[in-house]
Specification:
With 406 residues, the chain is of the alpha/beta class. Helices cover 40% and strands 18% of the residues. Strand 10, helix 9 and strand 11 form a beta-alpha-beta unit. Its main location: cytoplasm.
């Protein structure tokens, strides 16, 4: 096989990413190893994907078993693993019907299309307004970047779809002023991830539910990042006690294999009659077999209560770092989606923390230039959590004097 390294990326790949200088080649639980044999504590989980860690033995066993039986069927057929996963999701949630696709963006695309189709079928063709939140993120398709509340992701790709409005997140007065009988859907992340790790208030989500009911609009929860256990509940709507009409899920659902899901009721799902929407690979047996095991493993008191326990360990550790170095303005989030907003001493330098973190053997993320984002595995060992925090403190201790001196 030809030798490849980070320089190969610049020679063969479209330059829409700026990947790290090292290439991971092996993972196990919450550790990664690169081409040079260097070891890292993984506090990113592939952006909230490998929530059961790398190379989980039960998932690996299911993958191997299914790989020896059947990988793919066209959507002219169904398959046993997809039906089992759909039933498991229905049994565990408010949903009565499930649609499978390959990513969070596709799940959100399906949800938004369904909302408009449902409005046409039950009300009128001009009931097409979609309301989303500023700083939200819902995917990278043209439709979902237009709905997402970060204009930078849609720049240069116009004209973008119409009928989309944005309001400030957690601002009840703003949504009350915007929503009307022309609104077909309101889409919201219970915890904004890319927008800075900002949780919705319970009062806000409850008010959205009431407003959508009043105006016959569908409430869509984008749980692509916070769903599948990361909040400490299987889905965050359960934590808030507010039930949406449509829920989207992806990322951790496949623990690394590409899958998205849209969950809804039978009444709403009926708007997607045969031929209205589809996916070539969505719900293929290989991926759904693994995802079924993921839900089985995560949706247990041991794992979900463990998320709450690890949240306390992680937040306490960050507070201890802050007590020594005064680098965090605020530590916020839900479960094991934690954002640490940087104080003036490191203002705008989240990327520097991430870069130096890799040099010290801890994989970190950012949510904008001023927020450090931490997404460890839901089952990370206490020892690995402590070691990752120790390495993060080494990074902070190295950066702060340099920042002050500058």
């Amino acid at each position: 096989m030809p030798t490849v390294n980070r320089a190969t990326f610049d020679q063969v790949m479209v330059p829409n990413y700026a990947p790290a200088p090292f290439i991971p080649v092996k993972g196990l639980a919450s550790r990664l190893w690169d081409q040079e044999g260097r070891e890292y504590v993984d506090f990113s989980s592939g952006i909230a994907v490998t929530s059961l860690g790398h190379l989980h033995p039960e998932l690996t066993a299911v993958l191997h078993e299914q790989a020896d039986q059947l990988w793919h069927l066209s959507n002219g057929f169904t398959n046993e693993p997809a039906l089992r996963l759909a039933q498991r999701l229905i049994d565990a949630t408010f949903a009565e019907r499930v649609f499978f696709c390959n990513s969070g963006a596709e799940a959100n695309e399906a949800a938004l299309k369904l909302a408009r189709r449902y409005a046409v079928d039950h009300f009128s063709s001009d009931k097409d307004q979609i309301i989303a939140c500023a700083q939200s993120f819902h995917g990278r398709t043209l439709f979902t970047v237009s709905v997402g509340g970060q204009p930078k992701y849609a720049e240069g790709f116009g004209p973008t779809p119409g009928g989309i409005s944005h309001v400030p997140f957690n601002d009840l007065a703003a949504i009350e002023a915007m929503i009307s009988d022309k609104t077909c859907a309101v889409i919201v992340e219970p915890v904004q991830g890319e927008g800075g790790v900002i949780p919705a208030t319970q009062e806000y989500l409850r008010a959205l539910r009431a407003l959508c009911d009043k105006h016959n609009a569908l409430l869509i929860f984008d749980e692509v990042q916070i769903g599948v256990g990361r909040s400490g509940s299987l889905y965050a709507y359960m934590h808030y006690g507010v039930t949406p009409d449509i829920l989207t899920s992806a990322k951790a659902l496949g623990n690394g294999l590409p899958i998205g899901a849209m969950l809804t009721t039978a009444k709403i799902a009926s708007a997607f009659v045969v031929g209205t929407h589809g996916s070539t690979y969505g719900g293929n047996p290989l991926v759904t077999a693994v995802a079924d095991k993921v839900i089985e493993l995560i949706n247990t008191p041991a794992v979900l209560n463990g998320v709450k326990h690890r949240n306390k360990l992680l937040v306490d550790g960050l507070n201890q770092i802050n007590a020594k170095h005064s680098v965090f303005k605020e530590i916020r989030g839900s479960g094991l989606l934690i954002g640490a907003e940087l104080a003036p001493v490191l203002q705008g330098r989240a990327k520097d923390v991430v870069t130096l973190g890799a040099k010290h053997g801890v994989v970190l993320l950012m949510a904008g230039p001023n927020v450090l984002r931490l997404l460890p595995s839901l089952v990370i060992s206490e020892a690995d959590l402590a070691e990752g925090l120790r390495r993060l403190e080494t990074v902070i201790a190295e950066l702060v004097p340099a920042t002050v001196a500058a």
